[in-house]
Amino acid sequence: MAKDFSLMEDSNRSSNPSIHEVSDPSRRTVLRGSAALAALFGGAALSACAGGRPPITGAKLGFSSVPPSTADRVVVPPGYTATVLAAWGDPVGVEGAMPAWKPDASNTAAEQAVQMGMHHDGLQYYPLDGSRRGLLVVNHEYTDDGLLHVGGMQPWTEEKVKKAQASHGVAVLEIELVGNAWRVVRPSRYARRITATTPIALGGPVAGHALAKTAADPAGRTVLGTFANCACGQTPWGTYLAGEENFQDYFATADTPTAAEKRYGLKNKAWYRWDAFDARFDAVRHPNEPHRFGWVVEIDPFDPASTPVKRTALGRAVHEGAWATLTKDGRAVVVSGEDAVFESIYKFVSRDRMQPGGAKANAELLDHGTLYVARFDPDGTGRWLPLVHGQGPLTAANGFADQGEVLVKARQASDALGGTKMDRPEWLTIDAKSGWTYCSLTNNTQRGQAGQPGTDAANPRQRNEMGQIIRWREHGDFDAETFDWNHLLLAGDPANERPEAQGNIRGDAFSSPDTLALDGRGVLWIGCDVSSYALNVGEMARLGNNQLLACDPATGEVRRFLTGPVGCELTGATWTPDGRTMFVDIQHPGEAPRGRNDPANPRRYSNWPDFDPNGRPRAATLVIRKNDGGVIGA
Ligand code: FEO
Ligand code: CA
Ligand code: CA
Known about the structure:
By secondary structure, the chain is mainly beta.
C-alpha cells in the first residue's frame, strides 16, 4: 500500500538511543556527517551510474533493461509478454457462484464476496501438477471506496460497508496452463474467498486471553475476518502466511486514545468508516476488538473448508507479511517487519520441529516458540532480543502481566528491549542456500526531522525518500541470537542533488523498494512502491511509474524488468517451479495522489487494464512468459 501521509502514523515515541553516525558495516567503518555520505555514495559505484548503466558482468540477468515509463500500461523487455490473469471483480470460481464483473462497480456485496477483491498484493503459487496447474493465493489489501461503489461513499450505507469488507482478505484460485496461456479454472473445488467476515481462529498464547475477549466472542478464540493483508509467505509445510498490516485504520476510538491505543496508531476516526454500520469497529464500545488484528494469519490453501488461524506467538504488529524457513533440525523460523516509521523487525523460532504431512501435521507449529526483535549495532553485527515474559524489562511491574500481554503489546515490548527503529520494513525474503535474509526498508521521510529519531547505522540517511535493502546472516543456524549485517544497496537516483537521495545502485535507478522475492536461480526481484503523489516529481522526477527490477545479489547489479501503469504499485512475485512463468500483481492503478478517487471521474488517473470508456482502473494479477518459453529473467 502506498502511504497517504495524512494517515501515516508515527506512534513510536519511545526513547531508544539513535546512533547519529553513518556507517557502512560491510567495510567496518564508522563515519560522520557529509564526509560519511560522500564516502558512502561516492567512489566506483556512483561513477558507474553517472556514466549510464555499468557494464553487466553477471550471467544471471539475461534480459534487456526497459526504460522508465509514464505510460498507462505494462512494459516488459523484448521477448516477453505480460497478460492479465485475474482482476478485481473477476469471479474466483466458486461452484454455482460466479457473478460477472460489472464495469460500473454495481456488483453487490454478496457478489463481491465470490469475486477477486480489490488491490491485489502478495501472492504465492502452490503446485497441483508441477508447473502446469496450481493454486494461486492472492492478498487483497485494502479498498478505494471512491472506485468500489456506485457513487463512492455518497451516501455511505450498510451495503457499502459489507461490500468493502467483502473486497478485503485473500483469494484462492485454481489456474492451469493451456498451450502457452494460463487461465483460471472455473468452477474449481479449491476456489475460495476469505474476507473481513470469515471466521478465523486465534492460535498461540493470546487465544482465550482476557485481552482477546469481546461481547460477541466471550471465549476470545474466534475472530471475524482478516484485512489489510499486505505481503505473504509460503511455509515449508505448504501453508500461506498473510500479514495484517495497517489494521489501525479500521477502528475508531475515543477523542483521546489510551496510551496503548496510541502506540498502535488508533485514532478517533476510522479511515474506512466501517464503524458507522458495524459496531465492532467502534473501539470505545469494543476495546478488545483491535487486539484481534495485527497478526500473521496462516491459511491452508489446499483445503477450502479449513479455518485460517491467527498465529499470536508471532506478535501483534503492523505485519507487512511473514517469511518462513527451517533450522537444520527442522524447527520453523519466521521473520517479519512492521511497515511503519521507526518500527522493528522480528524473528520467531518454533519450539517444535516440522513434521511430514503438510498443514494438518503442523497445525500448532507456530503456536509455541520464542519471538525476538532485531537490534542492528553500528559495528555490523546485530542481536535478536527475546520477547519473553519475565525476562529483562518484560515484567508485570512494567505493564506486561503475562506472555499474552507481551505479544499483544509487541511494540511496547520492543521499545523496552531496545529494538532498532527502522525505515519502514516491508517484504523480507530468506535465501536458505546462502543464509542471507533480505529486507526492504521502503523509505522514511521523517528520519532525522525535528523531534524524530536521527540516523543510525542501519538507517543512515536523513529524510530518507529512497529506501534501502538491508541483509543479515546469522552466526550459525537460522535460530541464532546474533548476526552480521550490511546494506545490499541504498536506493536512489545518482542525478539527484541531495546526497541522501543519490543511492549507490549498480544499475537502473529506483526508489522505495517494497516487494522482495528470490527466484529459483537466486535472483532478487524488487517491486517498487513510490507513493502516487511523489511519482515523477522532485527526487523521483526521472524514475517514471513504479517498476519491477531484478538484482543479482552476488554482484549487486540491478536491471529494470517491468514498468507499471499510472499510479500503480508493483507487488508480489511468484513463479512456477520451472521458472518459466512469473506472476506479479499490479496494485492500485490510478491511485489518487492523496486520498480516494472521485467516483464522478473514476478514470481520471488510469483506466488500466480494460480501457473501458465506462469502466475504472482495476488491480490485477499478471502472468509473465518468455515468448520462447524460456526461464524468466535468464
Ligand atoms: Fe502494504 Fe507496507 O505495504
Ligand atoms: Ca509500500
Ligand atoms: Ca507492501
